[in-house]
Design a protein that fits this description.
Blueprint (H helix, E strand, L loop, with lengths): L1 E10 L4 E9 L2 E6 L9 E4 L4 E4 L1 E6 L14 H10 L2 E7 L9 H12 L6 E7 L5 H12 L5 E5 L8 H14 L2 E5 L3 H13 L6 H6 L2 H17 L5 E3 L5 H12 L4 E5 L1 H5 L22 H13 L4 E2 L8 H8 L16 H11 L5 H15 L17 E11 L18 E11 L2 E5 L2 E2 L16 H4 L3
Parallel strand pairs: 1-4, 1-5, 6-7, 7-8, 8-9, 9-10, 10-11, 11-12, 12-13
Antiparallel strand pairs: 1-2, 2-3, 5-14, 14-15, 15-16, 16-17
Bound molecules: zinc ion (ZN).
Length: 465
C-alpha cells in the first residue's frame, strides 16, 4: 500500500522545505517537491501542516514499581498517550528489581509488561542497582544480544552507587558500546536536609524543593562528569537537567571535547518553584524539583544555543488522589514524578518555535533526531530519509489548543499542564505507516508497537547535532 502525504512542509533536523512524502508499507520511500498523486492508494492532505519525524521520548517510566507504589500508566495507556501527542517511539527507564537481581531479570519483566500492549515502538534502558563482576560481565550480552545499549545509574535513592562502582561501571559500559545515563543528585545532602526538616516539623511540599537545592544536583553532575573522564572519557548522558549551574558544568566538559550530553524536560523549562506554594502543590512533586525562575531562563539559554541535546518527559504517573492520601501531611511520603508524555511536542513547539526562540528544525533535533542518534535508533527513527520508518507527526502550527486533562489519554487523574494554551498541535500521527491519531481520535492498536533492538553506542555515529 502506497500512502502519499501531500502538500506539507517537510521538516527534519537539518532543513524545512515544501514537499510530498511517499510511504510504502512501513517505510518512507521517497520525498520530493512534488510526487504524482496517481501513484498512491491513499492520500493524506498536509496543506498548512508540518510533516516531521515522530517524537522520540527517551525518558518514560511506565508500570514502574517504586516499592511503595506502581505508576498508573502501563505500556498500553502510556504509549497511547504518547501517540496522541505525536510521539512514535519511547525508551522507558526500567525500575529497580529485587535486591541483588541480575540485569536480565528486569529486562524479562519489562518485555512481559510491554509485549502485546504497546501502541508504538519501544525499547528500554537497563538499570544498574549494584555493581559486581557478574553484573559487569552481563553487560556485553545486554548490549549485543538483547539490544539494550544504554543503562542508568542513580546517585540517590535506595540503590545509588558509590564512586568506585560508578568508575568501574563507566569503564565497562564504554568498552561494550553502551551509553551511561545518570540520575544526578547527592544522596547525603538530601538525607541531611530531610532529617533536619522532619525534626523541625517542616513537612509542606515547598520543603521538598528546598531539601534538594540546585547545588545538590549540580554537585552530582560535576562528579559524574569527572568520573566519566577518569573512566577514559566514557560517554555520559545527564537525564532531566533542571538548573543552570549543572548546565554550566556540562558545557565546560563539552567545550573540552568530553562526550557528554544533556536532557531536560518541559516541566523544568516551564514550571517554577512557585508551584509548591499552591494548594495543589502535591501534583508537582518530582525529583529534581521545580526551580526558581532564573534557572528556567538558563535552561532556555541552553535550548537556544544548542547546549541542550534532548527534551524528554520523565513521564511517571501517580494520581493526585494517591498523593493526597499519602502525603497531605508530609512531603517525604509523596510518590515522585509528573505526567507529560502526551504534551511534550505541543509544549516545546508552542514555547520554542511559535515564540520564535528556536527553529522547527532545532525542535525536531531536540525531540526526535538527537535522541534517536544517541540511543541507537537512527536512522530508522528520527529521520525523513527514504528507508526510515514511516513514523511521522503532522503538526498544525496555526492550531491553538488548551490542554485539559479530560482530553488526554493517560491513566492518571490530573495534568500539570491544565489550562495551558499551546500554539501548534499534533493533528495526525503515523506509526510505521499506520495512522494512530487523527482528528482528535486515537486509532492505534495494542500490540502494534514492536520492541526495538537498539544499536550499540559508537561515538562517530551517534553525535548529536
Ligand atoms: Zn526518570
Amino acid at each position: 500500500m502506497l500512502t502519499l502525504i501531500k502538500g506539507g512542509t517537510l521538516v527534519d533536523d537539518t532543513r524545512e522545505q515544501r514537499g510530498d512524502l511517499l510511504i510504502e508499507g512501513e517505510k518512507i520511500i521517497k520525498t520530493a517537491a512534488r510526487i504524482d498523486a496517481a501513484v498512491a492508494d491513499r492520500i493524506i492532505d498536509a496543506s498548512g501542516l508540518l510533516v516531521m519525524p515522530g517524537g522520540v521520548d527517551v525518558h518514560t517510566h511506565f508500570n514502574i514499581d517504586t516499592g511503595s507504589a506502581v505508576s498508573c500508566d502501563d505500556f498500553y495507556s502510556g504509549t497511547r498517550a504518547a501517540a496522541c501527542g505525536g510521539t512514535t517511539t519511547i525508551v522507558d527507564h526500567m525500575g529497580f528489581g529485587p535486591a541483588g537481581c541480575n540485569l536480565h531479570h528486569q529486562l524479562e519483566k519489562y518485555h512481559r509488561d510491554a509485549r502485546g500492549k504497546a501502541v508504538i515502538d519501544y525499547s528500554f534502558h537497563g538499570v544498574i542497582q549494584h555493581v559486581d563482576e557478574a553484573i559487569l560481565d552481563e553487560l556485553y550480552a545486554m548490549v549485543h544480544m538483547e539490544g539494550i545499549s544504554s543503562f542508568k545509574f542513580y546517585l540517590t535513592y535506595q540503590y545509588h552507587l558509590n564512586d568506585g562502582d560508578v568508575l568501574r561501571l563507566l569503564e565497562r559500559l564504554k568498552e561494550v558500546g553502551a551509553l551511561a545515563t545518570v540520575h544526578p543528585e547527592n544522596d547525603a545532602v538530601i538525607a541531611h536536609h530531610r532529617q533536619r526538616l522532619l525534626a523541625e516539623n517542616k513537612r509542606a511540599p515547598i520543603w521538598h524543593a528546598l531539601s534538594r537545592p540546585v547545588a545538590c544536583e549540580a554537585e552530582a553532575i560535576a562528579r559524574s562528569i569527572n568520573l566519566a573522564q577518569l573512566a577514559g572519557n566514557a560517554p555520559l548522558y545527564i537525564v532531566h537537567l533542571s538548573n543552570g549551574l549543572g548546565m554550566d558544568y556540562i558545557k565546560l566538559a563539552k567545550a573540552r571535547g568530553q562526550p557528554v550530553w544533556m536532557e531536560t524536560c518541559p516541566q523544568y523549562l516551564l514550571l517554577d518553584i512557585g508551584h509548591y506554594q499552591r494548594e495543589d502543590a502535591l501534583k508537582y512533586i518530582l525529583s529534581p524539583p521545580l526551580r526558581p525562575h532564573p534557572e528556567l531562563d538558563s535552561l532556555w539559554g541552553g535550548i537556544n544555543d544548542g547546549s541542550i541535546d534532548t527534551v524528554a518527559t520523565d513521564h511517571c504517573t501517580f494520581p493526585y488522589s494517591l498523593r493526597q492520601a499519602r502525603a497531605a501531611e508530609d512531603f517525604t511520603r509523596c510518590p515522585n514524578g509528573l505526567p507529560g508524555v502526551e504534551n511534550r511536542l505541543a509544549l516545546l513547539f508552542s514555547e520554542g518555535v511559535a515564540k520564535g526562540r528556536i527553529s522547527a528544525s532545532r525542535f525536531v533535533a531536540l525531540t526526535s533526531a538527537n535522541p534517536a542518534r544517541l540511543f541507537g535508533l537512527w536512522p530508522d527513527k528520527g529521520s525523513l530519509r527514504p528507508g526510515s520508518d514511516a513514523d511521522l507527526v503532522l503538526f498544525d502550527p496555526q492550531r491553538r489548543q488548551v490542554i485539559r486533562h479530560a482530553d488526554l489519554h493517560d491513566n492518571t487523574d490530573y495534568s500539570p499542564w491544565e489550562g495551558f494554551a499551546c500554539d501548534g498541535w499534533p493533528v495526525i500521527t503515523l506509526s510505521r505507516g499506520e495512522i494512530v491519531w487523527q482528528d482528535g481520535i486515537f486509532c492505534g492498536q495494542a500490540g502494534h508497537g514492536r520492541f526495538i533492538h537498539r544499536k550499540p553506542f559508537f561515538l562517530k555515529h551517534q553525535e548529536a547535532k
